[in-house]
Amino acid sequence: MNLSEFQYKYQSQLIEWRRHLHANPELSWEEMNTTNFIESELRKIGISNIAKPLKTGLVAIIESDVKSEKCVALRADIDALPILEQNDLEFKSKNIGVMHACGHDVHSTCLLGAAKFLFENKNLWQGSITLIFQPSEEKQPSGAEAMIKAGVLDSPKVDKIFGLHVTPELETGKLGFHSGPFMASADEIYLTIIGKGGHGASPHLCIDPIVMSANIILALQQLVSRYADPKTPTVLTFGDIQGHGATNIIPDRVFLKGTLRTFDEAWRQEMKQKIKSVCEGISRGFGGDCIVDIPQGLPFVYNEPELTTDISNIAASFLGEENVIQMPIRMGAEDFSYYGHHCRSSFFRLGTGNAEKGTMVSVHNSTFLIDEDALSIGAYALSQFAIKS
Predict the structure, then answer these.
(1) Rounded-to-10 torsion of CA 115, 70, 176, 120
(2) Does the structural domain 3-184+300-388 have CATH classification 3.40.50.300?
(3) pLDDT category, 67, cuts 50, 70, 90?
């Protein structure tokens, strides 16, 4: 079956699935109804080998007509974001303040579509295919890490795994690939800067955590500009500062939240130590203190080069070489990265941008939309990569 035939047969079903999922989003680790819906649709297809190793999410296995040790996994994330949707759609979010603003409804739909095709065409491939509908990509603790610990890659033993992500800056009809390190590691940074509060007119009687915070933020940026290897992309951003003082009140504490992104594991760990040293040193120099909390976050996404080349060539065979785009690295993060620590993996991009349809708004935005013509392309790509790679 070629792409046009696939679109003709499955597109209406894909749209129906996607619109249901979009209208009923659930936050990370709360995806009970989403899980139940996906399970119900898989059983309608005829897939019965389904397990729920965690409180949300599920894994299903399809066996081919011809037995083989080969096992390919396909993964989709199912959680939504705490965003109030501003789109005027018949199928806009019914869960006020929760929205599929990152396209996970699309990812789940594409995997359902691939599952239906693969189950109905078990004579076209050999071995088994593991379908992973994963919770909590958007929030720690990571759903990918939890799924792996629950054994979803072990029985049967997965040889390789593929996943996709919507990309509005890429036109519908195109797929994006990148060999090697693709998306950055991500660590969350929590700083509690401790001083001594008091009246704003008497700073000499206080230990000002506001001033300490300003010095810390400026000094930490110099870690990136002076210590990071210019050939190693590194981002250090603080997006939340809370002092809870007033025009005439110096607070006792200031709280900072930020993120560290890079592509080098050794430098990543070194940078964490440098952050701790700078924060503690500056705060103590002012007579205060700083509590530094940097929990271990996501590793970077690594696309195995040979595997990525293979699926790029497969994509070119049904889309045309002009629609297979070599993507640059991205400083965004993805917990799909965990799978690559256990088997060969490749994570690719699904173009959903269409200026005429107004689907160019970036993800994590209250007006994010996708071009539904991309659904069949994503589903077909997953199925073909599972069969032919």
Answers:
(1) -20
(2) no
(3) confident
- Cβ atoms of 66 and 75 within 8 Å: the answer is no
Q: What is the pTM of this model?
A: 0.94
What are the tokens at 6?
């696939």
Whole-angstrom CA distances from 278 to 4, 227, 267, 381 are 58, 13, 16, 47
327-340 burial string, b = 16+ CB within 10 Å, else e? beebbebbbbbbbb
In which band, very low, low, confident or very high, does the pLDDT at 114 lie, cut at 50, 70 and 90? very high
Interatomic CA distance for residues 104 and 80, integer angstroms: 7
Which H or E element spans position 142?
none
Q: Please provide the size of the chain in residues.
A: 389
Q: How far is CA 2 from CA 7, 284, 315, 377, 383, in A?
A: 9, 66, 12, 11, 11
> 209-223, pLDDT tens digit by residue?
999 999 999 999 999
Position 139 scores a pLDDT of 93
Measured between its terminal Cα atoms, the distance across the chain in Å is 17
Same fold, 3-184+300-388 and 185-293: no
Of the options 3.40.50.300, 3.40.50.720, 3.30.40.10, 3.30.70.360, the CATH number for the domain spanning 185-293: 3.30.70.360
Separation between Cα atoms, residue 171 and residue 360, nearest integer Å: 9
User: In whole angstroms, what is the distance from residue 109 CA to residue 375 CA?
Assistant: 7
Q: In the block, which residue shows the tokens 């919770």?
A: 135
**Amino acid (1-letter code) at residue 188:** E
Taking only the tens place, the pLDDT of each residue in 7-52 is 999 999 999 999 999 999 999 999 999 999 999 999 999 999 999 9
Burial label for 322, CB within 10 Å (0-12, 13-18, 19+), is: exposed
The two structure tokens encoding residue 174: 């195109």
Quote the CA–CA distance of 52 and 110 in Å, as a whole number.
20
Alpha-carbon dihedral sign for residues 354, 360, 363, 366: negative
List the domain boundaries for the chain. Answer: 3-184+300-388, 185-293
